[in-house]
């Protein structure tokens, strides 16, 4: 049984050929709604009910996509005897006349995708049989069964590329592709194939690309298509993939088994040229260390293969399934989203050419780094989203990761890494250790220590340019934690208090930094040293999720292009900030989710005109206990704010004036009531003399 597909984006865009006139330059014209460019007539989407007959007779390509033709009548293409390409995509075709292509001896490429050819498939088959020189045929999306396909492809021995995707093919046997000895590309994705009989592809000796993605294949056993280079069987329900045990050399270069239900590492050919193996999203694991097999019989599985009257038994060692596979040329291996708890000894040693290894979203708890494991050619290693608590580095091992450029250890349970590990990775440029509860070493760690450390030291990693430490629970940064690095990208987000009121620990790398994320680190505007004037090359700054009440300080001429101030405590942007050259140079600024005062947004119109506020529609402000979007503020809101301030003065006046008037009236009444006695008392006391 055999199957092979690859990243088969098998360019079944059959009719994208560009023609040029005799002078070597394309000429464009229009005729009856059709665009004429060189030898191409593009009539797509013109609501045509039949093939136009007034186009240049020397046309080499005719595109009639998205026209309601329904029927391609006999001799309708007779005016264009030189056609080499014809596209009838989405034309509602139900019938193609038996003589529709009789005059098309030069036709090489025919696209009939997304029509209704299953209704009159016998007549369509008869029409196709008049094209002995056809090389590329697209029949995708026509609701064809395997019997219909077999009839349509009969005697088309010149075909080199066929697309049958999005049909209703369920089974394949040796009659479907009989006689297609020149076929090189075959696309069968998005069908309902659940069975492929032995020998179904035996006659396709030139087949190089096979796409069987999005079908219902349960297993591939005794795979023996040695001529294939690209095989894509992703998005099926495979539980087993077993290559033939023969010693034949396979030409296979790319194998995609991702998004299946594989239980074991696939049994690959003993001799192959495989350089890309995609195993993402399966149920695979290695199990030898989990079982105590007391006898060899408990370590094998036997497959009974019945093909007609012939019965074969294939025996597979479940715990050493990779040992006989040829992985010497493998360069890209994706084993992410599986259930690997460990890697067997010698597993990575079989891949000396491996440059990219993806093991994220597995169940790895420890990783042992030994000589040639991982291989020295490795440039990218992704171990994120596992359960790693320790990394072990073999004593005395040097230069084990010299080629490594990208190292992703995020979302694990690491407390530290062996000091020699990062020292050996002398060419690493990108390191992600986010979401590990690590701490930074207060002093440079000794390179002689090879055991696991409780801290991490990034000092003197001269090649390091990008470092992510998001959500690591870091305390206040020690002095010069990144000294000797070449950091241009740094993420310290979600480490509350990591700066402890000062950005001084970043001064060593401030002139080089281009991207800095300080999201949710507890920044406040009261920090006297929160001044980014020294970050001359900073292009992207994230200050969201802090407690800033005022706009941060920058120097003139800063290269900043993106600034994020969301989720802070800003009530207004000062007028100077709005008019500063900084904001005018920004391409993107985020300002939403702040408690702005609607009476303090005067001058924000300038920001709106700059069109740099990416979340302008979400920026709100508070007005009289109401939350209003700034872009929807009434035109007279500022005048209302002035009246609101004036009304407060009037309120105080109204409250004070009645009290003063009441006191004045009371004093007047008292004075008038006791006027005469009071005067007498005053006279007697002062002995005033009377003129009488």
Description:
It contains eight helices and 37 strands. With 692 residues, the protein is an alpha/beta fold. It is flat and about 145 Å long. The longest helix has 37 residues, at 637-673. It is 13% helix and 18% strand. Helix 2 links the parallel strand 9 (136-138) and strand 10.
| Gross geometry | flat
How many helices in DSSP terms?
Answer: 8
Cα radius of gyration in angstroms: 39 Å
Unreliable residue stretches: 1-27
Query: Largest sheet, described in full?
Result: 24 strands, mixed
Helicity level: 10-25%
Percent strand equals 15-25%
- Strands, total number: 37
Oligomer: single chain
Distance between the termini: 147 Å
Mean pLDDT metric: 84
Structural class: alpha/beta
Observed structural traits:
ion channel; three-stranded mixed β-sheet; disordered N terminus; 37 strands; 692 residues; 8 helices; leucine-rich repeat; 24-stranded mixed β-sheet
Summarize the structure.
This protein is α/β, with parallel strands linked by helices.
Helix and strand topology:
Blueprint: E1 28-31, E2 34-37, E3 40-42, E4 61-63, E5 71-72, E6 85-87, E7 95-96, E8 109-111, H1 121-128, E9 136-138, H2 146-152, E10 161-163, E11 171-172, E12 185-187, E13 195-196, E14 209-211, E15 219-223, E16 230-232, E17 240-243, E18 254-256, E19 276-278, E20 300-307, E21 310-317, E22 332-334, E23 356-358, E24 366-369, E25 380-382, E26 390-393, E27 406-408, H3 419-424, E28 430-432, E29 466-468, E30 489-491, E31 515-517, E32 540-542, E33 562-564, H4 575-579, H5 581-585, E34 588-590, E35 596-597, H6 604-610, E36 620-623, E37 626-629, H7 637-673, H8 675-686
Parallel strand pairs: 3-4, 4-6, 5-7, 6-8, 8-9, 9-10, 10-12, 11-13, 12-14, 14-16, 15-17, 16-18, 18-19, 19-22, 22-23, 23-25, 24-26, 25-27, 27-28, 28-29, 29-30, 30-31, 31-32, 32-33, 33-34, 35-36
Antiparallel strand pairs: 1-2, 2-3, 20-21, 36-37
